[in-house]
Structures are given as C-alpha cells and as structure tokens.
Design brief:
By secondary structure, the protein is of the alpha+beta class. Helix content is 40%, strand content 35%.
C-alpha cells in the first residue's frame, strides 16, 4: 500500500511538473517575443538616428558658401573696387577686407551687403596704393570663409 501511494504521489508530481514545464515553455515563448520586439525597436531607433544624421549632413553639404573675385580696378590713388561674385548656394555677406594683413575700411554698393547666389556686388576699399606695387587681398564672409587674391596696382 505504501508503494502504491508513493507511486500515485510520484505520478501526481510528474503530471504537475509536466504541467509546470509546459506553462514555463509557453512563458518562455512569450518572453522571446518580448525580447525580439525590444531588439527590433532598438535597431529601428539606431537606424532612424543614422538616417537623420546622414540627411542633416547632406543638407549641410548642399548649402555651400563660395564667393570669388571676378574683377578689380584701382582708381584715384586711394580706392580699389573689387567685384565679388557669389558662386555658392547660400547668400554671402562680406564682413572683413584685408590688404597685406591689415584690415581695411570698405563699403558695398547695396544697402544690406548681402550677395545672393549667382549675384555680384561691388566692394569699394579705401586704401592709398602705389602704382606698380603688388597687394595681397583677403575677403572674409560672415560665416568665416575667405577668398584670397593678389593684384598689382597699375
């Protein structure tokens, strides 16, 4: 009798363990789904951040400030007029003009001094020059970009 009782308890325990293991396996499947979903969300967040950074960089690259000097004239012994052309994709504004490493006083031919893309502006520099002498020019924009050129007074 004791053996049959032990056997019945053993069978009951075995059935209960089977039930618990089955329940555990079901929960494990649920847990795998949750872990998988969390990993998928994490990967998507990383992808979104990378794409956003790339898109921001691409828009910065497409907005280029690039200005050049298309011509210059020396006149009256004290004025140099420089024609600055904006070849970039954003507006430019000349902030500083340097001749031979000295900042110079200048005016522009428009009221606001902004050069729209593909436009030109006259910059008048007040500088007493000597005929036959070479000068090093540096034009600096509001964004800090520079245009360097050399010119010799006639």
């Amino acid at each position: 009798m004791k053996n049959s009782k032990k056997m019945a308890n053993y069978r009951c325990l075995k059935a209960e363990m089977k039930h618990k293991m089955a329940h555990f396996r079901e929960n494990k499947k649920d847990m795998n789904l949750i872990v998988g979903a969390v990993l998928l969300i994490a990967v998507m967040v990383v992808v979104i951040i990378v794409v956003d950074a790339w898109a921001g960089k691409a828009s910065q690259v497409s907005q280029i400030e690039y200005f050049t000097v298309s011509s210059y004239t020396f006149s009256n012994g004290n004025t140099i007029t420089v024609v600055v052309e904006n070849n970039g994709t954003v507006s430019s504004e000349i902030a500083e003009v340097w001749i031979n490493d000295e900042m110079q006083t200048f005016t522009v031919d428009s009221t606001n001094g902004v050069i729209s893309p593909k436009e030109r502006i006259d910059v008048s520099i007040f500088y007493t020059y000597s005929n036959g002498t070479g000068y090093n020019f540096k034009m600096v924009s509001e964004r800090g970009n520079t245009c360097l050129f050399n010119a010799t007074a006639p």
